[in-house]
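Lab meeting, item 3. Inverse folding demo.
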């Protein structure tokens, strides 16, 4: 239930190297240009506490349960302090990654139990202490920038010092991609797959067109 949250919540997903970042900024400008107030944020991160957790998650070795708990702890703080308040004010929230990334990276990538992730998802994205499926906060729209892992690896090569995830082999990203595909099938109305194997201009044109078709821009 989103009765008290008037705003629009849009998330952006894809394997590392799929090239989503510039398009998020472009879309933010497009919304601002139309007079919308935009909150641009990211996960893990988006609050002072969650950014500290991000540094740990992206750099320290840990087992998949620890990683999942930290990702969801960061998300809880972010949802409560930033995302829900911005949606309540009627803003457009553009979030670079959200829970689909946990299902893709920790679930499909690292092989962590999907049922446990679903339980954590309900706890963290609901307001009731016990977590109620009925008030589960989800994005209204999720852009999935889809690119073959071998191409993404080429784009990433030499771009910067890779973090813990970026330095994973192509096989890991094949699994992550499968995880995104499964989430897209399970929630086809929310997901929009963007073909990322095109020029930047063509990808951005698709991003804008999609926002218009869905009636958000
Ligand atoms: P990313 O969003 O690609 O940011 P940057 O462009 O600065 O590298 O990096 C975040 C990384 O965190 C990415 O490799 C995916 C990973 N991640 C998870 O493993 N689980 C999650 O739930 C989230 C949100 C991100």
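The presenter then showed the designed sequence:
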């Amino acid at each position: 239930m989103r009765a008290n949250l008037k705003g629009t919540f849009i998330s952006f997903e894809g394997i590392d190297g799929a090239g989503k970042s510039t398009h998020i900024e472009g879309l933010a400008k497009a919304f601002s240009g139309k007079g919308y107030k935009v909150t641009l944020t990211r996960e893990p991160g988006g609050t002072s506490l969650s950014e500290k957790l991000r540094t740990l998650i992206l750099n320290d070795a840990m087992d998949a349960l620890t990683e999942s708990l930290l990702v969801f702890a960061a998300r809880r703080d972010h949802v409560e302090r930033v995302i829900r308040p911005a949606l309540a004010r009627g803003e457009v929230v553009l979030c670079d990654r959200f829970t689909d990334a946990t299902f893709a990276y920790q679930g499909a990538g690292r092989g962590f139990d999907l049922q446990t992730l679903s339980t954590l998802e309900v706890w963290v994205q609901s307001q009731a202490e016990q977590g109620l499926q009925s008030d589960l906060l989800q994005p209204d729209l999720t852009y999935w920038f889809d690119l073959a892992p071998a191409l993404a690896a080429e784009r990433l090569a030499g771009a910067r010092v890779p973090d813990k995830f970026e330095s994973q082999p192509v096989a890991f990203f094949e699994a992550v991609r499968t995880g995104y595909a499964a989430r897209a099938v399970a929630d086809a109305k929310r997901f929009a797959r963007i073909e990322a194997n095109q020029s930047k201009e063509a990808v951005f044109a698709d991003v804008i067109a999609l926002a218009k078709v869905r009636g958000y821009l």
